[in-house]
Amino acid sequence: MAGGSKSFNTNRVVCNAAGDAKRAEMTTPGGTSQMMQAIFLKDHVKRLIDIQPTYISRPTFESYLASLRKKKRPAPSGPLLHVKITHTAINHVDLLYAHGVHQNNKSGLFVPPFTLGLEFSGIVAAVHNPENEACRFSPGDKVWGGSMGTHAEELITPASDLHHLPSPLWSLHDMAAIGAGTFPVSYGALTTIAGLKAGETILVHAAAGGLGVYAVEIARALGAKVIGTVGSQHKLSVVEGLLRDPQTGHIPKGEGVINYSKDGWEKDVVELCKQTGKDGVDVVYDTVGLVQKSIRCTTFNGRIVVVGFAARTGTGAEAVEALEKIPVNRVLLKQIKLLGYRYGETSRRLPDETVKMWQGLYQLLSQGPTVIKPVVYKTYKGLDHANEAMEALHRRQVFGKAVIEVCNEDEALQEVMQRSKQAGTAVPARL
User: The pTM is what?
Assistant: First the structure.
């Protein structure tokens, strides 16, 4: 669990005391605070350390709909859910949004003021369903999902953005680490776009990252062989741990981990492929921006799926590297299929395809944390550690996911039950 220096903790006590006083001023007659803690940015930041939680008004269904009207955005169809957030996860895109250098900042989707965060887990506190439509959720349900503004104590979001836990074997902490904005990206890229098959070999770049670790696990679950690349020795050992046979403790033939900061790493990939009679990998999963070098170790008629450009390191704190330029003659000579995958855009344009993808994803996760296991760098206690987690991610220390525990799961459920009692609605007895 994350800790902090003595001076930092002292500051936190002062901040929390001020926040508690603010909460006390804004309390309803029934005893429920009208304020909540959130990573709410009034403007873009220059330093991640300057990101601190503040107290803002607790969301209501009325305020949510009013905000959409103010921004001239259509109200979502179907029921809305008010969720008590227990866990949220830090992603690289949080750094970009905070510094104002993401394309969504420029398009107007994330314009200050806004609350950071894109994925979460928690407990349904209330349901807004004025049209009395069929709704799969009830107060007290444990859920996980992706939405804007998840680095907060509470959230209102369309029911379509939420999912029940795949099985009782998963905890809310586990699901935040899996990430509704992370795991589906890797699963969709490997199954829907790349069509990865059993017996094929896949090269996973940044294999210790949030997307990479689950690409490794998904590929293994599909019966593929995995070669991973990482940028440091520490991360190399993390991915080796994912590849080792639990029975023998050895990494199977034709698999391995390579440091891509080493010149000529492509040759090492080819050498691993030769162990199983291949002249290159069948599929490349690229979240870094290494297409040109990856072509050199991809077999004829192979597929390269581009999901991101982590090597384009600009987050507002340093110079932005140019996107790589690909000599298309190499694509032609090897008859390579160069594919791109944007999970969010696919969901908007091809919703039926996304529904089918989630069905397959749930079949995999329904087995519990066995074949697919959450990979957690560190769990930080409280939103006041969000800047620490973001700094660690910026310094490339994080492997898997950095998770923030916003609220204890049992405490969250008790609060939801209390609110339901005050509102005259019953929480299902099964909880």
Answer: 0.88
